[in-house]
Amino acid sequence: MAAAMGRPASKLIRIRLKPKAESLVRHGHPWVFASSVKEQSRDGTAGELVVVHDRRERMVALGLLDPDSPIRVRIVHRGKPAAIDREWWRAQAIRARERRELPADTDGHRWINGDSEGFPGLVADRYAGTLVVKLYSSIWLPRWDEVEAVLREVFAPRHLVLRMSRNLVARAREAGLEEGFRGDARDEVVVFRENGIRFEAAVRHGQKTGFFLDQRDNRARVEALAAGREVLNVFSFSGGFSLYAARGGASRVVDLDISAHALEAAGRNYQLNADEPRIARVAREQVKADAFEWLEACDRRFDLVVVDPPSLAQRERDREGALGAYRKLNAAAIRLLRPGGILVAASCSAHVRGDEFLGLVRGLARHGGRPCEERWTSGHAPDHPAGFPEAEYLKAICLEFG
Ligand code: SAH
Ligand 1: which residues within 6 Å by Cβ? Predict the structure, then answer.
């Protein structure tokens, strides 16, 4: 006992930060980069509790250690000391649940949006009775059992799927944790409803957690604009914007994606909604092509074009290239618009700022020589709250051309 008491490893890790980082943490930023740590009392293992303190030994915040990541500490709490235990996670999860106001007829949405809701590097998405939890940080590996129990209690899913970012899989395996269904469910494709439209989510192997839930409100905006229009959905994936446009009364919808898989999923999503007359009767086409090449060569015209590419800048050094790609894509899309045509352009690149992207699209419109009116700009749906600038990755703009 005496030996255990004196063992330094049993003491909480204490760190001090450089002044700018300390101020950011005080003001609510959840990330402490390794390069901002001025002193650390000892090394530690993934998920260990860390006390951030100031020059006068006062506690600033509590965080969890991510020793192999550039984000060295993920902050979970500021102010007075608190126990970060099962009760703590339960209270955070209940708060996330109660904060949400979901649209009618919607059982596919985000329950927990990571760092912005007190669960750094963890998202939990619901698709009907299935909860898909995706981990992006090793801080969760030692406390997965505790967190799984809390999520089951608070969100009461019938099935739960655990997924991880690629860099985490091997480390999780060493800790005895595998991706996949927890329990005996094996329905890899789950049907859910978003604003009354049925979609498939590939919960086990699909992109993100199986669907792009963050675009829900932008899809509803497209539905409201689509009546009587010929619509081109560039980077259509499983047809999210397309089905909304069809229900909004579009006369024709063209899905353009490079992936046969994505186009097949879109086809099935149309079938799932065949009881909706406007979706059943819309003229529908699919084009399997590279968007950059197809748009450049296209001699057709449309009344509404949606351009929602995958992230084009996952790292800071990709930023310039991404800006060039957005310029090319959206200039080509504007060229395809008939008089009165509408462009809806989106960017989910974390390293392209909102003002940069909006400025770029507005610039294309201004220099295109056509009259143009801005209808709206927006971000992600409110079940994806962003508590700090880096979390505001999705931006969209709608322009109407003369
Ligand atoms: N707009 C979709 C999400 C787009 S995800 C929604 O609302 O759900 C990005 C999609 O772009 C993926 O389906 C991917 O297959 C496709 N894609 C990636 N690169 C492409 C390219 N060069 N040309 C066409 N499609 C591409």
Answer: 212, 215, 235, 237, 240-241, 257-259, 262, 290-292, 308-310
Q: Which residues of the chain have pLDDT under 70?
A: 1-10
Whether 199 is covered by a domain: the verdict is: no
- Alpha-carbon gap, residue 243 to 46, rounded angstroms: 43
For the annotated catalytic residues, the residue numbers are: 348
Query: Of 191, 223, 258, which residue constitutes the final position of a domain?
Result: 191
Query: Which tokens in the block code for residue 315?
Result: 């790292």
Instruction: Kindly give the distance from the C-alpha atom of residue 237 to the centroid of ligand 1, in angstroms, as a whole number.
Output: 5
End-to-end Cα separation, the chain, in angstroms: 80
Give the H/E segment covering residue 325. Answer: helix 319-335
Same domain, 316 and 375: yes
Q: What is the pLDDT of residue 4?
A: 41
What is the model's pLDDT at position 3?
A: 39
**For residues 320 and 90, what is the distance between their CA atoms, to the nearest angstrom?**
42
Domain containing residue 337: 212-401
Q: What is the pLDDT of residue 186?
A: 77
